[in-house]
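hey m, so remember when u said the tokens were messed up on ur end? i reran from scratch. heres the input so u can diff it against urs
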Amino acid sequence: AFGIALFEANTDGAVVQDEKNILEMARFGKMVKLTAFSPFKMPENALAQINDLANGILGEDMINFLRTNLPKPSKGEATFQVGCGDPKLGAAVQETLGVPCVCDETTQELFRGIRFHLPNFFPQLALTDMEKAQLALAHAYSRTKVKFDVNSMDNMVKQAVFLFDQLDKDINKMSMRAKEWYGGHFPELARMVDDNITYAKLICFIKEPQLADGRVPCRPGGDHQGRSQGPRDPPDGRISMG
């Protein structure tokens, strides 16, 4: 997140398999050493590098860094191998620079140890600064991966229409359920009131019909749509079929 680093490892797979050699800096520091480091000048450089690495591409800055800091092959043959965490990146390094690359379990364990002991390799950098740089780069990289939908406004309109339709269906379903349940107590009320919302309000107002007086009470002012909703000579709730 803050630069390009090159490490030199002198070990084999058997040594790396020992967990103590990875977790203890005293042992890991003997196997892996920091040989070169090039900090990023701008956050845009870090974002460009991580985008190239994610696509298995070597950027110009990475190529110049590796050519400058990798040992020069003797007699045209390299006596070292470049460890890569991604096989595609390793193939790009081998094709561009002509040096052998390796990407195996040992390499992954070495990378895990480097990430674990990274603050020890860069004591001049505060841990909080490193975490902030990693977080900022992660946010910037995530934003580049989010695809912009040109039909986003249309999708919101479609979702709103679907939501209204679903609400209407749910209201009708719950109203039918309320009439079905309350019809066992006061079946005549469903024929008296057509509006679902008014019916629900009357259920809350009447409650148990045997407790009502001689007429079903109805609040003045009409229903929620402004229509007159007076009682149609309702029967006595105490003598209802329910």
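this time it looks ok to me. The longest helix spans residues 152-182. if urs says something different then somethings off w ur setup not the seq
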